[in-house]
Automatic annotation (TrEMBL):
Gene: Cpm
Keywords: Carboxypeptidase, Glycoprotein, Hydrolase, Protease
Protein name: CBPM Carboxypeptidase
Every Peptidase M14 domain range: 14-304
Catalytic-site annotation from UniProt: 274
GO terms of molecular function: metallocarboxypeptidase activity; zinc ion binding
Highest classification ranks of the organism: Eukaryota, Metazoa, Chordata, Craniata, Vertebrata
Length: 435
């Protein structure tokens, strides 16, 4: 046991290639088997495993009431800082559990998924590190993985890559609530939408989601807890970010991005963290990058406990999957639905909200809730819904949101009848359900 613990703790500030990374993850799991779960969600083009280490009191499976969180790094193979600081985050979490009361409560009340590299082929292909660009950015097929997801605004003609498909399936199979993907080449926290159209205000240079206030808070949480990101100075005089944050579309428009996909189709709030001006800095700088990001990484995870959560059940107390649960006034273009356990999680800032629970074919239930800031208590406000008219013989059928450019459909409707965005979202919901 001492040997295993020693092996798990032996994490130097250097770059860990595929075999070393896998060896380290296996060592951590062997040393902390009850706190961790190691699995591969798929393989890269060249057959490398896409490893995920899960940490928490119940690492092997979802537990009702405990939200799912994820960090993903090295999506662009030549952007390497995130890959290494996630290994050090793992080391910090497992070594602090049972010793640090905050980390202990965090892991007891959160299931944390960490993927150090989404593009191992690109990392291994980067033979000569460069601060600006190498071919290692792309996967083995030459695809940019952050332009490879279905897009909510326009048809993405890119062929879905094995790494992308693995992440899409992963998102589908877990109830992720909050996420961040770690990049390099700038110093800023960027938030959805990355793409846009007139419906989301892109004509004014900003693409607004229904949860824009929450996304701004999430980005500021990371930036303000980072050693220097909050200063907003960027990496050169041409690039400044007030407060160290930016709307993705305002920075530059991109199609097929992962954070928009998470939000629209995964019911998961994700932001993009640009952590270093140099994409692939010298290894002797890694310790400073870890110090600069350590507090921000932890504070950001805590935000998974924002808002409200609960279960939707029938008259017998059985869970109702696929019930729509959303806050009034912020309907999503792809309605947010309960999971197989009838659970929902809505990230909302402190305030008063009306939560609308709907089981198709039955009268909606509306409840007014006063949401406090519960991140320090590691539990969102709990609000359950019970449908007394619904029996276990009558269940919501599985409804998957179409992978069509949903906001493109809204733009067409808007040009024709000029209704509000809220009404448009409801129209689209009905269209998807009937299709």
């Amino acid at each position: 046991i001492l040997c295993l613990a020693s092996a798990a703790a032996a994490l130097d500030f250097k770059y860990h290639h595929t075999e070393e990374l896998e060896q380290y993850l296996r060592g951590v799991h062997a040393a902390y088997p009850s706190l961790t779960h190691l699995h591969s969600i798929g393989r890269s083009v060249e057959g490398r495993d896409l490893w995920v280490l899960v940490l928490g009191r119940f690492p092997t499976h979802h537990k009702i009431g405990i939200p799912e969180f994820k960090y993903v790094a090295n999506m662009h193979g030549d952007e390497t800082v995130g890959r290494e600081i996630l290994l050090h985050l793992i080391d910090f979490l497992v070594s602090s559990y049972g010793r640090d009361p905050v980390i202990t409560r965090l892991l007891n009340n959160t299931r944390i998924h960490i993927m150090p590299t989404m593009n191992p082929d690109g990392f291994e292909a980067t033979k000569v590190p460069d601060c600006y660009y190498t071919q290692g950015r792309y996967n083995r097929n030459g695809a940019d993985l952050n332009r490879n997801f279905p897009d909510a605004f326009e048809n993405n003609s890119a062929s879905i890559q094995p790494e992308t498909r693995a992440v899409m399936d992963w998102i589908k199979n877990e109830t992720f609530v909050l996420s961040a993907n770690l990049h390099g080449g700038a110093l800023v926290a960027s938030y959805t939408f990355d793409n846009g159209n007139p419906v989301t205000g892109s004509s004014k240079g900003y693409s607004t989601s229904p949860d824009d206030d929450v996304f701004i808070h999430l980005a500021k949480t990371y930036s303000s807890n980072h050693a220097s990101m909050y200063k907003g100075t960027g990496c050169d005089s041409r690039q400044t970010f007030p407060g160290g944050i930016t709307n993705g579309f305002s920075w530059y428009q991109l199609e097929g991005g992962m954070q928009d996909y998470n939000y629209v189709w995964g019911q998961c709030f994700e932001i993009t963290l640009e952590l270093s001006c140099c994409k692939y800095p010298p290894a002797d700088q890694l310790e400073k990058f870890w110090r600069d990001n350590k507090v921000a990484l932890i504070e950001y995870i805590k935000q998974v406990h924002l808002g409200v959560k609960g279960q939707v059940t029938d008259k017998n107390g059985n869970p109702i999957p696929n019930a729509i649960v959303e806050a009034k006034g912020r309907a999503h273009v792809c309605p947010y639905r309960t999971n197989e356990q009838g659970e929902y999680f809505l990230l909302l800032l402190p305030g008063t909200y009306v939560i609308n629970a709907t089981v198709p074919g039955f009268k909606s239930i509306l409840k007014t809730v006063e949401i406090p800031d519960n991140t320090g208590n590691f539990s969102a406000l709990k609000q359950d819904f019970s449908f007394p008219e619904v029996s276990d013989q009558i269940r919501s059928r599985v409804v998957s949101c179409a992978k069509i450019p949903l906001y493109q459909e809204l733009a067409r409707a808007s040009a024709a009848v000029k209704p509000t965005i809220h009404i448009l979202a409801l129209m689209t919901t009905m269209l998807v359900i009937f299709k």
